[in-house]
Amino acid sequence: MFVLSLLPVLWALSAKADFFQFDSISNASTYYFNYIYCNIWEGECQPNQDDATQQVPTRDLWTGFPQDYISLLHQWYCSLGQCCESGDCRITNNITGLARDLQMKLHGQHLAQSVVLKAIQGFINNPESNKPLTLSFHGWSGTGKNFVARIVADNLYRDGVKSECVRLFIAPFHFPHARLVDTYKGQLREAIRDMVLRCPQTLFIFDEAEKLHPGLIDAIKPYMDHYDNVDGVSYRRAIFLFLSNIGGATINDVALDFWHSGQNREDIGMEDLEHRLRAEAMESQGGFAQSELMSGHLIDFFVPFLPLEYRHVKLCARDAYAARGLEPDEGTLDEVAKAMLYVPKEERLFSAQGCKSIPQRINFFLP
């Protein structure tokens, strides 16, 4: 009976490699052969997570298989007890953990906490969404944009940002030369398609998005649009995060206006910022603003990250010490916070560096 259940799988694998010629076995057949040998036939072996032959096959080999065979292979593999309730052990979708981390670890960002949680939760709970989720994070450097992206990855995926279902692109690093934009287009489209074929739910993070060439974003615009599929592949279960410094000055102006008027910082609402962020993003310089992503209104939420105040810097310092197993007193936290730069200078209100540099800065205060 067991052998009969394997026949469709072997049939699928034969399209990629001769199962009995070990030298030419694909990553897929090697993995599943090793699993059967170690766990079903109880061969003498010790699966090693660092050994590529003991890991679930990834990369581009799946693109060579018809979608029906991939589904068949996945169903058979799950029947052996190697899948989770979600259908894929790589995906955790821990919304409770996401809410807790945003509340406990992210300081001074009540808008980002609320918008990101609601957007992610709504997307996860709606498997029939008609487009991928696209969020655009805006604010000064050090206010938490990258930090929130990592929190999202850590709670949606077992391996966080290291997951094979998560891909980070840094515009100046991955796409540095404008003259190679046509080459980058093909590489980027291939990378996104490959990941979506490998993972039923994917996360793409674009850091310094304002530095992306407009042609690059337009090349992947169809993947974020309201299409059932693009060239036979559905991208509706993908999440796109764009991180940008665009709008930082606008966000700071609004926060400063609230402070001057005696209003609480927590009273700042999305209605005070989102339309201004959208307008500034449309008018700003750079490929992000000039792309069809903006003119096509494909960004679901513009998420503002407010400038951090002195009290928030102290909380970040406390967390940095706690990460090292230390419990500093209030005096030490004050010393760290005072060492940061603030603007406006005469009012010493907002931290010009955010929390990004604190882990390194506290080295100067250690005994």
From TrEMBL:
Question: What SUPFAM superfamilies does this protein's entry cite?
Answer: P-loop containing nucleoside triphosphate hydrolases
InterPro entries per record: ClpA/B, P-loop_NTPase, TOR1A_C, Torsin
Origin species, per record, is: Myripristis murdjan
Q: Which residues form the signal peptide?
A: 1-17
Q: Which residues form the Torsin-1A C-terminal domain?
A: 308-365
What are the annotated GO cellular component locations? endoplasmic reticulum lumen; nuclear envelope
Q: What protein is this chain from?
A: Torsin family 3, member A
Entry keyword set: Signal
Family membership noted in the UniProt record: Belongs to the ClpA/ClpB family. Torsin subfamily.
Q: Name one GO molecular function term.
A: ATP hydrolysis activity
